[in-house]
Amino acid sequence: MTEAQQRFSQLAQQPDDSIDLATAALAVSGLFQPGLAPSETLQSLEALAARAATQVAPEADLFDKVRALNGFLFDELRFTGNQDDFYDPRNSFLDQVLERRLGIPISLSVIYIEIAARLGLPAYGVGFPGHFLVRIGRGDTALMLDVYAGGVALPEDELDQRLADLYGRGTLNIRSHPALLWPATKREILVRMLRNLIGIYRDRGEHINQLSALTAALTLAPDLPGELRERGLLYRDLDYAPAALGDLRRFVEVSDDAEQIAAVTQIIDQLGGQPMRLH
């Protein structure tokens, strides 16, 4: 196990409330960037928060604080969504997002949440379908922000329209499914970041990085059915039958997808009849 993997494993053992989100996001980055110095990025984050504090008046109301923070991050510093190369893995690495000021919804949201927290703003990540959001505040006065679009506040009808675009009109709406706007846990945020990287490395055919991302996700949440199945099949393709069997058997135990269970059971039977190879 590398030093970065060991650091990540130790972090994953912590209770969710004890996880420092910025440190954890940098631990994800370190899995794919040997030699990364997290302390330097954390110092940069603290420096940005200190600069933001000079522009966000403590006595201002919530709306004015958000407006000032948005102006600092998106107008002055020019943080923006990377629309030209959305699937560049650097968009998921917190150190790279801070340096390049380019990212995707979830990585930009993590930076926003961390800076807001240092200013005393109640900011939370929201794993909204299709597009990660930031929630400021709780209750009926909460603001839902699209950080990828410069921190624009989204009213309920816009959120409903986004759901309709994904699932069809009348299928889901915020009023009947308020849990869609509940704050995500830190583990959920990290797993979602890793799922982005899993997809990127899968599409690129970078199997070792894909395997690292899958293993990190399963370190955080050991019984994710999709990740167990994908890692098991990847192990099979890499000709590592013992590990493949372990993941696929666990998938059968935790999945509720009858069709996939049937297909995976056939693969298990095939692998079980092969001679074991040691790697």
Characterization of this structure:
Strands 3-4-5-6 form a four-stranded antiparallel sheet, with helices on one face. Strands 1-2 form a two-stranded parallel ribbon. With about 280 residues, the protein is an alpha+beta fold. It has two domains: about 5-180, Roll (C8orf32 fold), CATH 3.10.620; about 225-270, no CATH class. Helix 2 packs parallel to helix 8 (about 185-205) and helix 3 (about 40-55) packs across helix 6 (about 105-120). The model is unreliable at about 275-279 (pLDDT under 50). Strand 3 and strand 4 (about 135) form a beta hairpin. About 60% of the residues lie in helices and about 5% in strands. It is globular and about 70 Å long. The longest helix is centred in the C-terminal third of the chain and has 19 residues, at about 185-205. It holds the Pfam family Transglut_core2. This is Protein SirB1 N-terminal domain-containing protein. Belongs to the UPF0162 family. It comes from Lamprobacter modestohalophilus.
